[in-house]
């Protein structure tokens, strides 16, 4: 029986050596305050939302270490401690070669990849600083913005097959003016394209592009109800104001409710210049909608789908990916702009519109 145990141990060591011999291995050299001597340190590698593997060791003389095959597909996590006690952790990519980790409240990871990424972030920040200075000096920034875009493209392309490059691509998927997104997306493996986060961000990007194509088109009409239960259509309100903002919201939407006071101020500031608002609630539950209306100032008309229209159909018509969301119409019902970044976005659009209007009037 003892012989069998030694044979098994030898086989395990041989397999471990074979793995690290055939593939590049990481070598984590960790340090932590010596007061944690004897504490358990755990290394989690994760794929999607599933823990791929777990390794653990103990702190000895303020040090700990891990060795294993390179894994760059997702970030891994080193953790010491358990809630509600103090937990020290660090996120890292398990790249081949030595990785220095200092576990503390603001843990530090030092490896070629983390240093390269930090240099990338610093360079991007410097590009943005130069662009900001140029804008203040009213200089042309088109070439500088293009250089920043190309620099980011080269970095993402280099790392597109690991978690870092893929993560950067997804974080900037909502930048519909990025000319390189589609090219980088096509570089992803079929496995990556089937990931939930990739599919989700790609669909959001497609809808964002669709929103931009709404500008210049005529509004889409549909039937709703007012607070008295009467059927109304958007066309009943179009043409009564120089500008009409269709405000899509819902009683259950916290951000929608939070921006209400800001919309009131914008309405009061511009109503005498022909600005109007039409609230369109995506509530299916009429009682919830009416309950919120009872607490609002109700300075403008409010309508609700209340089962009169399919929520999914409305979202598709206006490419709504989330609320609050709105579109700004001119007097003819043409969509001037899509407002998908809250009241601040609307304020900026109105300021620009009425400044241009003042200049036209002054001529």
TrEMBL record:
Keywords: Cytochrome c-type biogenesis, Disulfide bond, Redox-active center. It is found in: Cell envelope. Its main location: other. The keyword Disulfide bond applies. SUPFAM superfamilies: Thioredoxin-like. GO terms for biological process: cytochrome complex assembly. It holds the Pfam family AhpC-TSA. GO terms for cellular component: cell envelope. This is Alkyl hydroperoxide reductase. It comes from Bacteroides caccae.
């Amino acid at each position: 029986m003892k012989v069998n145990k030694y044979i098994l141990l030898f086989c395990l060591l041989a397999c471990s050596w074979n793995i690290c011999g055939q593939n590049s291995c990481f070598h984590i050299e960790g340090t932590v305050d010596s007061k944690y001597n004897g504490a358990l340190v755990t290394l989690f590698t994760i794929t999607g939302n599933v823990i791929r593997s777990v390794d653990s060791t103990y702190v000895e003389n303020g040090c700990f270490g891990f060795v294993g095959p390179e894994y760059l597909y997702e970030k891994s996590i080193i953790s010491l401690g358990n809630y509600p006690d103090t937990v020290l952790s660090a996120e890292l990519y398990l790249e081949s070669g030595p990785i220095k980790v200092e576990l503390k409240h603001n843990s530090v990871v030092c490896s070629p990849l983390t240093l390269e990424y930090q240099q990338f972030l610093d360079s991007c920040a410097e590009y943005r600083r130069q662009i900001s200075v140029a804008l203040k000096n009213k200089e042309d920034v088109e070439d500088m913005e293009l250089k920043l875009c190309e620099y980011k493209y080269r970095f993402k392309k280099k790392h597109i097959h690991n978690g870092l490059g893929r993560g950067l691509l997804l974080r900037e998927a909502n930048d519909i003016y990025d000319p390189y997104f589609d090219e980088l997306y096509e570089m992803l493996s079929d496995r990556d394209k089937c990931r939930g986060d990739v599919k989700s961000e790609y669909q959001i990007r497609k809808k964002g592009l669709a929103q931009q194509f709404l500008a210049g088109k005529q509004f889409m009409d549909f039937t709703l109800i007012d607070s008295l239960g009467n059927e109304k259509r958007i066309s009943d309100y179009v043409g009564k104001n120089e500008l009409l903002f269709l405000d899509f919201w819902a009683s259950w939407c916290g951000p929608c409710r939070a921006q209400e006071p800001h919309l009131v101020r914008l309405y009061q500031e511009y109503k005498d210049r022909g600005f109007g608002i039409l609230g369109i609630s995506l509530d299916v539950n009429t009682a919830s909608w009416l309950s919120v209306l009872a607490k609002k100032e109700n300075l403008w008309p409010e309508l609700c789908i209340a089962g009169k229209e399919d929520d999914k159909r409305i979202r598709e018509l206006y490419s709504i990916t989330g609320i609050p969301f709105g579109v700004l119409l001119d007097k003819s019902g043409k969509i001037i702009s899509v407002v998908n970044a809250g009241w601040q976005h609307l304020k900026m659009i109105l300021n620009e519109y009425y400044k241009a209007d003042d200049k036209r009037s002054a001529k």
